[in-house]
Design goal:
Elements lengths: L1 H12 L44 E6 L5 E5 L4 E5 L5 E6 L11 E8 L2 E6 L4 E6 L4 E6 L9 E12 L2 E10 L7 E8 L7
Antiparallel strand pairs: 1-2, 2-3, 3-4, 5-6, 6-7, 7-8, 9-10, 10-11
Amino acid sequence: MRVLVGLMILIACAGGPALAEITTVHNPEQAPRSSTIEYEEVWRAGADDDADYLFGVIMEATTDDHANIYLLDTQQQQVCKFSADGQYQGLVCRKGEGPGEIDNTYNMRYLGDGRLGFMRMVPSVMVMVDTLGTPLPRLEFAIDHPEEQITFGGMFSCESAGDSYYGSGRFYLVDKSKGSYMGFVASFDNKGQQV
């Protein structure tokens, strides 16, 4: 770590590209016993008996490049879209087995390029729609199984970066003497093949 810091300073001194100013944070010797946080309500949704939508259990929220907000309701297995100022824009995804529909989904990500992704654990599939709710081709992940016998398993969380995906999940083991499950983290290419 010290070598990298020294190298960065050397590059800056040698006339390299200017580095952004680094913010310094000074923490007190002893943490305060309590602190007060003041919240400001920007907009509200679902508090009244609105006929357009009804919330179940909101487990995930994300935004797109235009500051639209997407809420994954895991109880109803649907995704509501709101504008940045809180105007309801409709459903972009709902429960089902068809293209662009979700079921048993607890993970949602904005993938960039106008795409939303929803991770299914078993089978390990990312259902994708555009920000208007139009179904896109889904991505099936090919996961190398452990040598141990498993009852089932798959990914439950996935992130994207460029053309790569990074997922974590579990394999539930038949032989309980080795534990009940084995966790994993893996990287995948844009075709779902494990790297």
